[in-house]
Amino acid sequence: MEPPGWVFVFCVPYKPQVKTLLKWLSENDWKGQGIPKLGHYDWEMPIGLEIEAGIKEYCQDHPDKFDYVGSFIAPMGSMSAAGEAAKLKDCDYVYGTMFEGSVIMKAFALKGYHTQFIGDSGSFGFYKFMVESVGWENLDGYITTMTAPWFDEDNATVAFIKEVISRYHPGKSPEDMDGAYHGSFLLMYSMFEVLRQAVEKVGIENYDGQAFCDAAVKYSLQMEGFPQCYFTDTVRYLVHQCAIYKWSAASEGLIRLTDWLPFTE
């Protein structure tokens, strides 16, 4: 990807989401005295380590914005985080996302600790699991980035996803399909759309990796309610924006806090 080559990333990068969220929190959310303490819990896997790198880089570049307590990285699959929770209990913000985010949230709840949990779009892939595992009482106020609109928004993207769910999964609602379906829907759509455009241009007999590359670098997706998505001759990530949402126990849903924000690099 760097320098740009044959790899095109249709999933969402995590480091830019981390930096965009931290920038927004420092400018719009923090109302306390002094510099807020920030900590992070995750598992030892590529996404967790990318998030850790993003937090470190942002805090090093902006030492006046957050007091970085540290990232506590547990072996993948760890289901208890009592020790890590004790080390993070005095943080104003704790970054915990996806399956492993539920582990640290449950540890805080069991210990009676309180903090502002923050995370990213990966949590929506585990939306139903997190609600069932952690409960809305403990998820209330959780602030995360998101790279697709939520199901209750009125725009062409949501309507399109609902129409496809209705066609291929009759009787199912978007919520039944969990967050992963809607969060990755247009990313997968884009993957096959690039393939379709490549084959359409050169013919199936002449299709090869170069044809895919030639189509990909010209690809862009413009759909109402969805962030900017494109590749270029030098850009290998598809998604370039995110919005910020707050999880609400009162509505048992999500409250949108921002419009689409360009990624902070």
Write structural notes for this entry.
With 265 residues, the chain is an alpha/beta fold. The protein has two domains: 15-147 and 242-262, Rossmann fold (3-Layer(aba) Sandwich), CATH 3.40.50; 156-230, no CATH class. The chain contains nine helices and ten strands. Strands 1, 2, 3, 4, 5, 8, 9 and 10 form an eight-stranded mixed sheet that branches. Strands 6-7 form a two-stranded antiparallel sheet. Helix 2 links the parallel strand 1 (37-43) and strand 2 (67-74). It is globular. The model has no long low-confidence stretch (mean pLDDT 94).
What are the SSEs and their pairings?
Elements: H1 15-29, E1 37-43, H2 46-61, E2 67-74, H3 82-88, E3 93-95, H4 98-111, E4 116-119, H5 127-134, H6 136-139, E5 143-146, H7 156-168, H8 178-202, H9 209-216, E6 220-221, E7 229-230, E8 241-248, E9 253-256, E10 261-262
Parallel strand pairs: 1-2, 1-3, 3-4, 4-5
Antiparallel strand pairs: 5-8, 6-7, 8-9, 8-10
Helix pairs in contact: 1-2, 3-4, 4-5, 8-9
